[in-house]
Amino acid sequence: SDSYNLRLSDRRAKATVQYIVSKGISKERITGSGMGETQPKVACTACTEEEHAQNRRSEFLIIKK
Q1: Where do the structural domains in the chain lie, given as residue ranges?
Q2: 36-44 LR contacts (CB < 8 Å, sep 24+)
Q3: Would you give per-residue pLDDT tens digits along the chain (65 residues)?
């Protein structure tokens, strides 16, 4: 369901943040947020497994101070 996918996406985002923090990046410098199926990278109706994999992603925006 959409609500399950949103919760799953949020858990993935939090796990990604935890991983980056474990590598030495300050927790105050990073945030994470799950988008569920609201912002797919690949728009498809009958998605292949490869397309699903592309939509299960973590994206980073690096901002120079």
Answers
A1: 2-55
A2: 36/2, 36/5, 36/6, 36/7, 36/8, 36/9, 36/10, 37/2, 37/5, 37/6, 38/6
A3: 888 888 988 998 899 999 999 999 888 888 888 888 888 888 888 889 898 888 888 887 777 76
